[in-house]
Amino acid sequence: MTTPPSTKTFTPARPIWCAGCGDFAVQGVLEKSLRNMGILPHKLMLLAGIGCSGTIQNNLKCYGYHALHGRVLPATIGAKLANPDLTVIAAGGDGDGFAIGAGHLVHTFKSNPSIMYILMNNSNYGLTKGQASPTSPIGYHGNAELGLDSMLLGLSFLSSTFLARGFSGNPEQLGRLMEAAIEHTESGKGFAFLEVLSPCVTYYDTHREWRAKVYNVDEDESFDPTSRAAAFQKVIELKEQGHIPIGRIFKGEHPSLESIIVNKEETLPAQQNIGHFNEHRKHYDQFIKAHLV
Amino acid sequence: MTSTNTNSQPVLEDISVIVAGQGGDGSLTVITMLADLFRNAGLNVYTERDVASRIRGGHAAATMRAFIGEKHCIGSHIDLLVALDEEAVEKKVHQISSNSIVVFDDSSGPLRSGLLPEGTKLYAAPFNRIAMRTMRRELYKNSIAFGIVGRLLGLEDEAMRQTFTKRFERRGQIILDYNIEALELGLHLADEMGIKRGEGKYRIEQTEPEEQILVMGNESIAFGFMAAGGRFFTGYPITPSTEVLETLQKWLPRCGGVARQTEDELAGINMAIGAALTGVRTMTATSGPGISLMQEGVGHAGSGEVPLVIVDCQRSGPSTGMPTKPEQSDLNIMVFGGHGDFPRIVLTPGHPDDCFYLAVDATNLADKYQCPVFIAMDQALSQNIASVKPFNLDEVKVVPGKRLTAEEVAELDTYKRYSFSEDGISAFAAPGTPGGMSLVTGNEHDEFGLVSTDPKNRVKMMDKRFHKIEEAKKELPKGRHFGEPDAPIGFIGIGMMYGVILDARIELEKRGYNTQYLQPRTLWPMLDETLEFIDRCERVYVIDLNAQGQIAHLLMHQGADSSKIISIRRYDGLPYRPGYLVNQIVEREEELNNNDKKEAKAQ
After folding, report:
1. pLDDT tens for each residue of A90-137
2. What's the rounded Cα separation, in Å, for the pair A194 and B420?
3. Closest C-alpha to B402, from B434, B384, B372, B424
4. What letter would DSSP give residue A58?
5. pLDDT digits over A225-273, tens only?
6. Binary contact (A71, B270; C-beta < 8 A)
7. Which of B26, B167, B271, B554 would be B142's cystine partner, CB 3.0–4.6 Å?
8. Residue A117: beta bridge partners?
């Protein structure tokens, strides 16, 4: 189809976020990056988790899906494996990804499917009025536990291939990181994990604090993002100095999940013609033959 | 062989054999080879395994029934028990009688006297010791015992050698040689015991074997899904469902499909849902603990109208329960589970061949009605292996669900993912279709998929989703009925009870009880035929493999006359035998009869 059809479909919703929320910048940068990278709306699936950030799919014209709390990654991987031709993006917050869905994040680093995951980190549970999240610092809302760092988590998997952290207060850099992430998944290189520091203006306004703390490794010429060990060391050092590292943290190579388990000789699962029974009849006959006694 | 045979051995028409010992003793190997031999002789077979949930050790047994004609379960009477230790006799003695034969490994000493019923024929030999002495490995003991077992059952020596060769040659010449040597030792032992060639307890009338396949229910489910165009499966290993995953991991990639083991059941169902969004036919399989974990996803698929097949291979619950034992106690969770109200379909196959055809139906139905469709299995139905007629592939109908192509979308003025329609089903465009951009969500939504709490829309959407089930009722798989429709005594039972009830009916008829049986193949929504069946009968025995009478309650909840329902419940983890059921029924019937007499007297 050369010209887009004139058929009316859903009108993208207006964001539900509070004025000043970092998620606005994320959405704006995402839209621009998708345009720059030439991703067509009908080839894009945007799957979101539960939370403030988990409403972003309503705001973009594409195939949107609202997952169960914490389950956005399995759903996204399912879509990608069923139809690797699609651009499949997961989005969610720090509660969705680091608390209830942490197990899936771990296994996504391990399996390396070519999907992008934008995790909007505001270090609190905004939608339920500001409770502590897995990235909240000690002292916030009575939180006594040290927050987790997703870059260190991702680095610990030898199968991770793309780790970056952006800041909603630095949309230019965020755009570069996002386009690099899209490039990574579009070329089938694996899992592009992009955490975005996205302050919550209502319950935990960290904008100024984060602005002061971020350290941009992209501007550090001595930093080599292709060395996992160097990245580890750098992130730990910066954290110990009270900084939050942002930028392209790591860039590696590992076979992508879909390149391993999708049969390249056959039509992709979602593109097969349901009802064309005879297309695979020979395998069905073989199954019966294998069980004959 | 002809009737001039002087030995007057009975023709082997229906025999049940148990091989029992410790896990790892190779009971299943013996049974599998016996099944192969009987199949070659033209008989049909049904096998069952009974294991502890561990890798090695613990009591383990395998049972086989070989028969002429149609049977769908293990028989009530065990004709031959091969006991590799004393515990095996202790565990299985309740199933044997003085007519049974026992082959016993007395390496650790003679069998305790008084353990066997009076008159039971016992053949004892130290198989383990002989194996250790001659081959330095105890694992050949069952191949030695095989010689005696084969002779007793009337199998030909040469046929046994052939089956051994077929079974062991792929494991290397050394292993084959040792096993053949063990078999020869066994045959020699049989000679010494006076069981010479052709002088066993039975005579096998060789017939040309009818072409059949040997499958377990789980393999049939996997294959049915694949044949129906299913191309995406995700699940987490759990007994007794794992063979569904394993079978699909082997076969689905050949057809371009994906079958993947996930990190847990939550990922299992949610990955399946994500895949289903793209239009591919999708399934997951699990057992009790997994079905509990998946509940949020089930309701989500119901609300978001995502087509999904979910196989529940039920085992003894609650919690971890008894993982290797059959039960049908997840019926409530399949029919009523999950928070909120949403439509679902629950299908209940009754035999490995039925599993294939209902898996095809389930896959079509999920796609058509865009809702979760359960296939309710049980451990016995899932894992027992039966010889069945090769599935009729020409009969498989794959009916695509309502989808919109780019051209069809372009012709529309407005495209709505959840458009209200006469049958409640909304045609959808799969991602990748130009112009078909849409929103799918488990939140209540409007026709476009945008979140909505508008009360009018809410009611309309709920009604739309439930209306699909009313439509589906017109074509949901009908049950199978056996017996005269005016028989006073009815049976309702599903899953593994199918074969047991069929067998029990024959015995009950001999004893003067006229019965009919309905195997509902759609448990939910309840079909009218099920309630009509109850109406027709004077009383109905509802056989529940659970403690609460879940089927009985479901029937009453749906309007069945409760005064007609006699709820039989069993939850001890043992597989039902037809004789056990016959005794239960006869006891109840006699009780009812006596009560009638008492009442008559009192008047």
Report:
1. 999 999 999 999 999 999 999 999 999 999 999 999 999 999 999 999
2. 39
3. B424
4. G
5. 999 999 999 999 999 999 999 999 999 999 999 999 999 999 999 999 9
6. yes
7. B26
8. A90, A193
Residue B443 domain boundaries: 406-473
- Whether residue B97 lies inside any domain: the answer is yes
Contacts of A100 (CB under 8 A, 6+ apart): A69, A70
pLDDT tops 80 at residue B518 = yes
Q: Tokens 């690099």 map to which residue?
A: A180
Say whether both B180 and B222 belong to one domain.
no
What residues of chain B, 416 to 445, have a C-beta less than 8 Å from chain A? Answer: 416-417, 430-443
- In this predicted model, what pLDDT tens digit does every residue of B569-590 receive, in sequence order? 999 999 899 999 999 999 999 9
Tell me if B515 sits within 8 A of B489, measured CB to CB: yes
Nearest Cα residue to A67 out of A47, A81, A82:
A47
The ipTM value here is: 0.98
Instruction: Specify if B242 maps to a domain.
Output: yes
Gap between the Cα atoms of B365 and B357, Å rounded: 12
Q: Which amino acid is at B560?
A: A
pLDDT at A5 exceeding the cut of 80: no
Beta sheet of B489-492, edge-to-edge order: B480-482, B515-519, B489-492, B539-544, B565-569
Residue at B132 is within a domain? yes
Q: Check CB contact under 8 Å for A269 and B275.
A: yes
Q: Out of A44, A66, A275, name the one closest to residue B442 (CB).
A: A66
pLDDT, chain B, mean: 95
B69: which DSSP letter?
Answer: S
pLDDT in tens, A156-209: 999 999 999 999 999 999 999 999 999 999 999 999 999 999 999 999 999 999
Task: Based on the fold, state whether residues B463 and B358 are members of the same structural domain.
Answer: no
Question: Which of 272-301 (B) contact A at CB < 8 A?
Answer: 272-282, 296-297, 300
Comparing CA positions, the residue from B282, B600, B603, B228 lying closest to residue B430 is: B282
Position A3 confidence tier, pLDDT thresholds 50, 70, 90:
low
3-state secondary structure of B166: helix
Q: What is the rounded distance in angstroms from the CA atom of residue A238 to the CA atom of residue B106?
A: 73
Interchain CB contact of B451 with A (< 8 Å): yes
Q: Which residue of A has its CA nearest to B300?
A: A68
pTM here?
0.96
| CB neighbours of residue A46 within 10 Å | 28
- Do the Cβ atoms of A96 and A72 come closer than 8 Å? yes
B563 occurs within a structural domain: yes
Q: In chain A, whose CA is at the least distance from the CA of B368? A: A274
Residue B474 has pLDDT above 70, yes or no: yes
Residue-level pLDDT at B66 = 96
Same domain, B237 and B379: yes
Listed in order, strand segments (DSSP E) in B384-503 are 385-388, 439-441, 480-482, 489-492
Residues B255, B245: Cα–Cα separation, whole Å: 15
Instruction: Give bridge partners of residue A125 from the DSSP assignment.
Output: A131
B436: chain A residues, CB-CB within 8 Å: 9, 42, 63
Q: Is B331 on the interface with A (CB under 8 A)?
A: no
- The pLDDT tens digits for B386-409 are 999 999 999 999 999 999 999 999
Are B212 and A285 inside 8 Å of each other by CB?
no
Chain B CB contacts of A261 under 8 Å are 253, 258, 260
Sorted by where each starts, the structural domains of chain A and their CATH numbers stand as 22-131+143-291 (3.40.50.970)
With an 8 Å Cβ cutoff, is B350 touching chain A? Answer: no
CATH number of the domain within which B278 lies: 3.40.50.970
B80 and B175 fall within a common domain:
yes
Q: What is the model's pLDDT at position B3?
A: 39
pLDDT for B599 equals 84
